Hints:
The chain has about 130 residues and is mainly α. About 95% of the residues lie in helices and about 0% in strands. It has a domain at about 50-95.
Amino acid sequence: MNLRFVVTVMAVLGLSILLTGCSIFGGGDKAQKKESTDQSKQKSQSTKDKPSVINQELKKQYDMYKEIIQYQIEQDKKVIKQSEERYKKLKEESDKPPKTEKKDSKSSADGKGEKSDQKMMKSKGSDTGSSSGD
């Protein structure tokens, strides 16, 4: 029991010495940290007054990027609007009665048929004429 008591007392003393040492030597670090934070604040304030060349260039590039994105959005809107207009026109055309279209197509088909017959007759005549000439 005596040995345990001695070990416990030594552990308590060791911890107390350790804590007091940290508080004594740790206090100096806090002062240095305060000084370094004050210096960093002063540097940040001086850089706010005069932005660096890199920051200026990055800001210009960012502004250009935003303009490009805005332009692309506008172009996409235009394309969408045009496609909607085309869709409406096609829909209107498909809604029209198909009878008027069929009559027009029949009359034009008849005219084409007569012309194609005449062309075929001419070609047959020229074929027979060339064969008899040989």
